[in-house]
Design goal:
The complex is a heterotrimer of chains A (226), B (236) and C (276). Chain A is mostly helical. Chain A contains eleven helices and no strands. In chain A, helix 2 packs antiparallel against helix 3, helix 3 packs across helix 7 and helix 4 crosses helix 7. The chains are: A mainly alpha (226), B mainly alpha (236), C alpha/beta (276).
Chain lengths: 226, 236, 276
């Protein structure tokens, strides 16, 4: 073990943290919005809505993220008509391709989590709400949403950690986040084990903070009011 | 364009098919390896020993908190040296090569094992306490009890969870492509690079993965109904 | 049940480790990347082919050894040699002082300057510079050419492949938005797609790409770049301890250069003579 090298490279690799967090943050926000839409479509009784949602979730969950990234980044860029369309504003940038891929991925997984949460709201509660004269909006805010969130939060916490880990793949499309910087250092020092241990520890720390935060949120949801 | 995915020496069809077989094989052996260490660490987690529990906790936390790609890289670069280091202790000075398949199985299996640990632990805890007590009352030996009473129930209870672990494992094998194992991901990448037709080959790869997914989905459904035969749920 | 039997047998075969002892050169394992046309690449039959594969077979025959090829991704190609996964690297690798800190090299078997490329119609194509940029030459003219390149590329996205002499060159001499790719193939695709404004690589591999339909819109610009940190040509990478193997390679390469074998292979794959 070359400890001095590990110490020095730590300060290099840490420079990738902002990009990692930026990608996680943006994809999670976009992904959550999309997920709510997909989940609502998925539970719809109208096949016109539920079928596309079903196939979207099936495809994303059934294929590796790395493949999705390559498909979006290299596969779509192959066509001149895409390069000449408005889509190219997004697809030209490796950063946007990375965010797009992770957004679609987390949307599919989160949609299933949200669906599970929604289905845990028993019809009795909703009936009780309406017999008390609650409006549809009020029922959503006071009954459906709190129960859904409470049910979905632990699983969603896991999803956040999966997202942090997934960002390591975007180094393959030239983005210099934690793993990207680590690989660059390795190509000069030939010390993969040492450098990857440093990078791994940084991920572990980020995920530790997220786990704590989710535990705190769960505590709040279960004991407070939202 | 489609002549590129024909079989034979001019098309990539046969190579992609071999890639798919490799994906299925390495996923299966990784899942199996993961189930073995999953069972081991699940029993660690449920043991009375603080040290064993700490070891198991450390393993699942680290493996689940570090990106899969890094775990694979670490084992890929570090695994060979570790084996050679051990061999040196025994006096063997040459080079021992672990095949990419072995490294892939160990790497993805270790990741898969962390998820299996939780699934198996949950399943063991879900076996009603009365079952253990009844077996004891009947004067069963501990080994017989494990084999005849606990194992069948744990297998049944863990099956849906293992189905999920399988899906995760299958997808994680795409990352072994970085170690040189020619499975679906790497083969389609080689083909895309060589022909400059990434769209075609990545689309084919997506369908190959979805094909495996749907087959295994049916397999697990059947297995679940087979294992649940004659079983009446206690609640509801 | 038969399928399970076949499956298990396959699994066992696949996981078997291979053993090899150092010091006996009747069999030489050659590590190559297989994604660097025309030096070394993978064909539709899934086989490794290319100029270096042909050359390696020829050299092995001269040394009375059997060649065995091992594929290895570029980013791990030096560590895997050091670890002993194979005995020689033949993967379009230039002989540089930087790499000689870790491994040693045979004498060069081919030389090829580095060159920049861009898309046809790009303003960069009109850039006029000296024909050659020799980094060993410390004159004002060299500095002037680097200055011209830098001014033209300022703020633009330049692609290089990771851990190459080209990455070193860009880091040392240029002030650009550097994009680093794992393989040449991926960089080629992004150059054609317009995700990078220019690419720096060895000229032979880009020429091969220009000959394909998707690379038809790519063209060269700027000087031939060589010398200095770009190294002394492409050679076979060998572990530092294996000086006997290095001597064998040096002798075989000298013979292959003298009898025109290298020129013939190079004409076949590059359409020009790269013999040292």
């Amino acid at each position: 073990m070359r400890f001095e090298l590990m110490y020095e490279s730590f300060f290099e690799i840490i420079k990738g943290v902002p990009l990692t967090l930026e990608v996680v943050f943006l994809s999670t926000i976009f992904g959550l919005v999309l997920a709510v839409g997909v989940a609502l479509m998925r539970v719809s009784k109208n096949k016109f809505f539920s079928n596309p949602a079903y196939y979207f979730i099936y495809t994303i969950r059934g294929t590796p993220l790395l493949l999705q990234l390559f498909f979006i980044y290299y596969g779509l860029a192959q066509f001149t008509f895409i390069r000449e369309s408005f889509l190219w504003y997004v697809l030209e940038s490796p950063l946007f391709c990375g965010i797009l891929t992770l957004t679609l991925s987390t949307a599919a997984y989160s949609a299933e989590i949200i669906r599970g949460g929604m289905q845990s709201v028993s019809p009795g509660y909703i009936e009780a709400g309406s017999s008390m004269g609650m409006s549809k909006m009020l029922r959503l805010r006071k009954i459906i949403l709190p129960i859904t969130i409470r049910q979905a939060l632990p699983a969603y916490g896991n999803e956040l950690i999966l997202m942090v880990k997934a960002t390591s793949l975007i180094s393959i499309v030239t983005l210099m986040e934690i793993t990207g910087i680590a690989r660059t250092i390795i190509s000069k020092t030939y010390a993969p084990v040492e450098i990857f241990i440093v990078a791994g520890s940084i991920y572990l720390f980020i995920n530790f903070v997220i786990t704590r935060f989710i535990k705190y949120a769960e505590h709040k949801v279960n004991h407070g009011s939202i | 364009m489609l002549e590129l995915i024909t079989f034979g020496d001019t098309g990539w069809g046969d190579e992609l098919l071999l890639g798919m077989i490799m994906t299925i094989m390495v996923s299966t052996s990784s899942l199996a390896f993961g189930l073995v260490i999953g069972t081991l660490f699940a029993s660690f987690k449920l043991s009375n020993s603080l040290i064993l529990r700490a070891i198991a906790e450390f393993y699942t936390t680290v493996v689940r908190g570090v990106p899969e790609l890094l775990v694979i890289y670490l084992l890929f670069f570090g695994g060979g040296s570790a084996v050679m280091y051990i061999a040196k202790i025994f006096g063997y000075m040459g080079y021992i090569e672990l095949s990419p398949f072995t490294i892939g199985t160990i790497a993805v299996g270790s990741i898969s094992g962390a998820y299996s640990t939780e699934v198996i632990r949950g399943a063991i805890l879900a076996v009603p306490k009365g079952q253990f007590e009844a077996a004891k009352t009947l004067g069963m030996k501990k080994s017989i009890m494990s084999l005849k009473i606990i194992f069948p129930q744990v297998a049944r209870l863990a099956l849906p969870g293992i189905g999920n672990v399988w899906q995760v494992t299958l997808k994680d094998t795409a990352l072994i492509s970085v170690t040189g194992l020619v499975e679906i991901m790497r083969q389609s990448k080689i083909a895309a690079g060589s022909t400059h037709e990434p769209f075609l080959f990545y689309t084919v790869a997506i369908f190959l993965y979805l094909f495996i997914t749907s087959i295994s989905y049916q397999f697990f459904n059947r297995a679940e109904s087979k294992f649940s035969k004659g079983f009446v749920r206690e609640s509801s | 049940m038969r399928i399970i039997k076949v499956f298990t047998t396959l699994l066992i075969t696949l996981s078997l480790s291979s053993f090899a002892l150092a010091g006996d050169w009747s069999k030489i394992r050659v590590g190559t990347e297989g994604a660097y046309e025309p030096w070394n690449y993978t064909n539709a039959a899934g086989e490794l082919v290319g100029a270096e594969l042909d050359l390696a077979r020829d050299l092995c025959a001269r040394m009375g050894a059997d060649c065995e090829f091992v594929q290895q991704d570029w980013d791990g190609i030096i560590p895997a040699l050091v670890q002993g996964k194979y005995d020689v690297i033949m993967a379009g690798m230039s002989i540089t002082e930087e790499r000689m800190k870790t491994i040693s090299f045979s004498s060069a078997y081919m030389t090829e300057p580095a060159k920049m490329s861009t898309i046809k119609g790009s303003p960069l194509t009109t850039l006029s510079t000296a024909k050659n940029l020799n980094l060993d030459d410390d004159s004002a003219a060299t500095k002037g050419t680097i200055g011209t390149l830098n001014a033209a590329l300022k703020g633009l996205r330049l692609g290089v492949t990771a851990a190459t002499i080209h990455e070193d060159f860009a880091n040392t001499y240029l002030d650009v938005d550097l994009k680093i790719y794992p393989t040449q193939d991926e960089m080629n695709l992004d150059l054609s797609a317009g995700r990078i404004d220019a690419a720096l690589s060895d000229s032979g591999t880009i020429e091969a790409y220009m000959g394909t339909p998707s690379g038809a819109n790519v063209t060269f610009f700027g000087p031939n770049i060589f010398g200095g940190l770009l190294g002394e040509g492409v050679g076979a990478g060998i572990r530092q301890g294996d000086s006997d193997l290095k001597a064998m390679f040096d002798k075989a390469i000298a013979e292959a250069a003298a009898d025109g074998t290298i020129s013939r292979i190079s004409m076949q794959y590059f359409g020009k003579d790269l013999a040292p």
